[in-house]
Design a protein that fits this description.
The complex is a heterodimer of chains A (330) and B (275). Chain A has 14 helices and no strands. With 330 residues, chain A is an all-alpha fold. Chain A has two domains: 73 residues, no CATH class; 237 residues, MetI-like fold, CATH 1.10.3720.10. In chain A, helix 8 runs antiparallel to helix 11, helix 11 runs antiparallel to helix 14 and helix 13 packs antiparallel against helix 14. Chain B is mainly alpha-helical. Chain B has two domains: 47 residues, no CATH class; 218 residues, MetI-like fold, CATH 1.10.3720.10. In chain B, 77% of the residues lie in helices and 0% in strands. Chain B has 13 helices and no strands. In chain B, helix 3 packs across helix 13 and helix 5 packs across helix 7. Chain B is globular, with a radius of gyration of 24 Å. Classes of the chains: A mainly alpha (330), B mainly alpha (275). The interface between A and B is large, with 91 and 90 residues.
């Protein structure tokens, strides 16, 4: 019942919007005699248009557009969410972030370092797995499933799974094998906790990347490889000079996919380390979250979010232009 | 073609299986330990359970309020998919078929907004939506998913509809079909492949999402699986017997979904990523 009610409300609001679009589209230079009927037709078209587009555009405006732009405004205020008055403070928040907030700077550097490491490892391992499961193996379908499976699990549950592995599982393996690496307290030390996050994200992401590389590898024409083999090329030469260039577009896609997702890491960061020990693994998204909802400094949190947005947008725009350029070339 | 099963392939096969097992180790640890008593987890982490302790599951099931939490997750995911599929396919269809400037502007706005990371929206979002009564309500959350998912969903539908010939629709209109009739009777059934992709991509995201529901749903009765697991871990820290059973129950629905839809999921992810 509730859904239907919601839909009806959306519909009626859409109709209002439809009227707006209709007047906006009003033609001026039509002959007087025809004006009425043409206006009616145009109005009807605009009405249909807004019934189709209106509901989702309304939700999109309320949920995405308005909060985004008010957020940009709040970045220049001292809003704390509690007091009623919001004062415009200009660039004060940004000045604070860049000069006094060392945690943010460290968080930024850490996120960048994490992103670089995670991109490299996820892609190298993902590509390796793709090469493996495109061989003529009897188990290749099962292997694809196994490598992909971790990707289904959301970041929160993933972090908890690995919390157990790092705390109890590793200790047990260390005891059984005596390998020093497993006897460390992985989540208790800044350095190993960082690598813990990397391991989790590679375990989760490699299978996803593998699927994209598999699709690309299957598109490499077999005749090309066959011809090279007849000409006496060895496996490595085929990989280096035929396969790799042929899957280059997929590499671009995967690099940027992993860049965006690594840079925005939040869930597994929260559940695996919660930024600890002593904030040493607090990535950017978590830092913004803490600033806003733990410290209740919304203004500063928004300023950080704006910086975050600019970086993410820059990465994405770079990706789009690069892949467009590639398309033109090929 | 060299399809012979040679000695080298056997070595590769063995290596692949070994790697697969390494990938599965975390699952092994979680599942096997979820069936042990607390003391056995501490003393005997790596071995298989000596006695199966199903009591862990019974207790975690009750303490998690699993049925409630599961149905919350299910309702949110299904309802969000429903509104996303219906409203976004309608919008994308109209945006493709109406050759006007406004269509382009709207489409570009939807797509460009995909860049915005959630963190840049969340603070004012909670403020604006609380005055609209969308907070602490499953339906409010569904409307938010409609807003957040609209960019990608419209983008995918838009690309697909461009490939559907318009002649079919014109014929139907001449036969007296309304615009709604044309869309729901002719175009919508043709879009089944992309609808499957859309549903899979959105389901994985919405089912696993933690941050948005954690900000929107304060009432414990409304918690989803990721939310409930998070609070459960906070409450029963280091009580691994219960926590691991809860984790397994959290993962299980997704694994079942995956094995039922495996082919579609792999296809959906590939086409979703490449576009």
């Amino acid at each position: 019942m509730k859904v239907i009610g919601g839909a009806v409300i959306l519909r009626s609001q859409t109709n209002n919007q439809g009227a707006d679009v209709g007047t906006f589209k009003d033609p001026k230079d039509v002959k007087v005699a025809k004006t009425v009927s043409i206006n009616k037709k145009k109005l009807k078209e605009a009405g249909i248009f807004s019934v189709f587009v209106g509901p989702v555009f309304l939700a999109f405006t309320i949920i995405v557009l308005i909060p985004f732009f008010t957020g940009v405004y709040y970045a220049f205020t001292d809003w704390n969410g509690v007091t009623g008055t919001i004062k415009w403070v200009g660039l004060e928040n940004f000045k604070y972030i860049f000069t006094q907030d060392t945690a943010f700077k460290e968080s930024f550097l850490l996120t960048t370092k994490y992103t670089v490491v995670a991109i490299l490892l996820t892609n190298i391992i993902g590509f390796g797995l793709a090469l493996l499961v495109t061989q003529k193996l009897k188990t290749r379908n099962i292997l694809r499933t196994v490598f992909f499976m971790p990707n289904l699990i959301g970041g929160i549950l993933l972090g908890f799974i690995w919390q157990f592995i790092f705390i109890k599982g590793f200790a047990s393996i260390g005891q059984l094998t005596g390998i020093h690496l497993f006897t460390l307290s992985w989540l208790g030390d800044a350095k190993t906790a960082f690598w813990g996050l990397v391991i989790v994200s590679v375990w989760q992401g490699a299978g996803y990347i593998m699927i994209i590389y598999v699709a690309a590898l299957q598109n490499v024409p077999q005749e090309l490889i066959e011809a090279a083999r007849i000409d006496g090329a060895n496996k490595w030469q085929i990989l280096r000079h035929i396969t790799m260039p042929m899957v280059a577009p997929a590499v671009t896609i995967c690099l940027f996919l992993t860049t965006a997702s690594s840079f925005k890491i939040f869930d597994s960061n929260l559940s695996l380390t919660n930024g600890g020990p002593f904030k040493s693994t607090e990535m950017l998204a978590l830092n913004i979250y803490t600033e806003a909802f733990v410290n209740n400094r919304y203004g500063i949190g928004e300023a950080k979010a704006l910086i975050f947005f600019i970086v993410v947008a820059a990465i994405t725009i770079l990706q789009v232009t690069l892949s467009k350029k590639k398309e033109v070339e090929s | 073609m060299g399809s012979k099963y040679t000695g080298k392939t056997v070595v590769t096969e063995f290596f692949g299986i070994l790697l697969g097992l390494i990938f599965l180790i975390p699952f092994y640890y979680v599942v096997s330990n979820s069936l042990k008593s607390f003391t056995e987890i501490l003393t005997n982490t790596s071995a298989l359970p000596k006695v199966f302790e199903f009591q862990n599951y019974v207790q975690a099931f009750e303490k998690l309020n699993y049925l409630k939490v599961f149905s919350n997750s299910l309702i949110i995911t299904v309802a969000s998919n429903l509104v996303l599929v219906i409203f976004c396919s309608m919008a994308a269809y109209m945006l493709v078929r109406t050759k006007k400037k406004i269509s382009n502007i709207l489409f570009m706005t939807f797509v460009a907004a995909m860049i915005i990371p959630f963190q840049s929206i969340m603070i004012p979002l909670i403020k604006t939506t609380s005055s609209l009564g969308l907070l602490n309500s499953i339906w409010g959350l569904v409307i938010m998913y409609l807003g957040f998912g609209s960019g990608m969903t419209i983008f995918l539908y838009h690309g697909f509809i461009k490939g559907i010939p318009v002649e079919l629709e014109e014929a139907a209109i001449i036969d007296g079909c309304t615009r709604f009739g044309v869309f729901f009777r002719i175009v919508f059934p043709l879009m089944k492949p992309i609808t499957v992709t859309v549903i899979i991509l959105n389901s994985l995201w919405i089912w696993n999402d933690y941050l948005l529901p954690s900000l929107v749903l304060q009432d414990p009765e409304l918690r989803t699986i990721p939310l409930a697991t998070f609070f459960f871990f906070g409450q029963y820290t280091k009580q691994w017997d219960l926590a691991l059973a809860a984790l397994v129950m959290g993962i299980l629905p997704l694994l079942i979904f995956f094995f039922a839809m495996q082919k579609h999921i792999i296809k959906g992810i590939t086409s979703g990523a490449i576009k």
